[in-house]
Amino acid sequence: MALTPDQIAEAQALRATPRPTLRAVSEGMEARLYTPHPVLDHGFIRVIDYMGDDAAIVQAARVSYGAGTKKVSDDAGLIRYLMRHWHSTPFEMCEVKFHIKLPVFVARQWIRHRTANVNEYSARYSILDREFYIPEPGQLAAQSTVNNQGRGAVLEGAEAARVLEVLKRDAATAYDHYEEMLSQAQPDGTPQQGLARELARMNLPMNIYTQWYWKCDLHNLFHFLRLRADAHAQYEIRIYAEEMARMVADWVPLAFAAFEDYRMGGVNLSAKAVAVLKRRLNGEVVGQEDSGMSKGEWREFVEVWG
User: Fold this and answer.
1) Where does dUMP bind (predicted)?
2) CATH code of domain 1-132+209-266
3) Which of 49, 134, 192, 265 gives a 20 to 30 Å CA spacing to 86?
4) Whether residue 62 lies in the annotated active site
5) Has 123 been labeled as part of a binding site?
6) Is 35 annotated as a binding residue?
């Protein structure tokens, strides 16, 4: 993980000068503010700012009940109700802003979540660092034979070593050429104009690191985590999501507990799946052929229900 000296100094200064506030404060998130948490070989994620806490979710939900209405449930119960019945607006009252350093190919997958505000480090104005994501040997795997998006068996021996060497060599060569194109002098010292940064960057590989600020409300952040912190998500984005989830658990513990229970730990059933379960409970033996489900649906059903 590499923060610049200026970023380190900024984080230290901000943590050293706390300020009194009338805003709602989450003690768990205050402990997280500005501190970078390492991810992958050179990446990190840190919280830059946040708004709201569990109480903000409850406040937003109860505002529509009208003055004088009794609180018939405690905060945890209300939050669980909101999560259980897929209410979204109260969770949108909380927001968080992250500073994230990540490989470009992960960023391109991440940006598919179009419900955040994003500002990325610009390689038009600045020169990218010589930092590349090189997987650990245990993350080098063959293509899955049952999932077009997934990994299969881990590569071993000479094949794994060859792949790692190719990744390292190609990344180094591409960056060398990037520097040569930017330079105003050829290797022998002959002056040259040097290629514009916005053009030279096209030669860089997808495993080079970029950085961005990513701001999102809690409702959409939960949606991101449900997909990307899932065991089926690609490893490289999943461990960012898992680190982010630990931060969210400290920020809004009641909401995160409900999210874990109903979204991460829960299961959504189709009408056909409900019908199969009812038939099974009545003692009937049901197979894929008479379930009304496709093979893919049935495989996913069996993974959960046996």
Assistant:
1) 109-112, 120-124, 201, 228
2) 3.30.1360.170
3) 49
4) no
5) yes
6) no
Give residues with Cβ within 8 angstroms of 141, minimum separation 6.
151, 152, 153, 154, 155
> Binding residue per annotation — 89?
yes
Structure-token pair, residue 27: 């003690």
Q: Tokens for 201, please give them.
A: 């960057």
Pairing of strands 151-154, 37-39: unpaired
Name residues whose C-beta falls within 8 Å of residue 28's C-beta, 6 or more positions apart in sequence: 249, 250, 251, 253
Q: Identify the active-site residue in 46, 228, 279, 299.
A: 228
Residue type, 224: F
Asked if 296 and 288 touch (Cβ cutoff 8 Å), the reply is no
Contact 50, 29 (CB under 8 A): yes
pLDDT one-digit tens code per residue, 153-198: 888 899 999 999 999 999 999 999 999 999 988 888 889 899 999 9
121 is in an annotated binding site: yes
- Token pair 């030669």 in the structure block, residue: 203
The 10s digit of each residue's pLDDT in 104-158 is 999 999 999 999 999 999 999 999 999 999 999 989 888 877 777 778 788 889 9
**Residue carrying the six token digits 């901000």:** 14
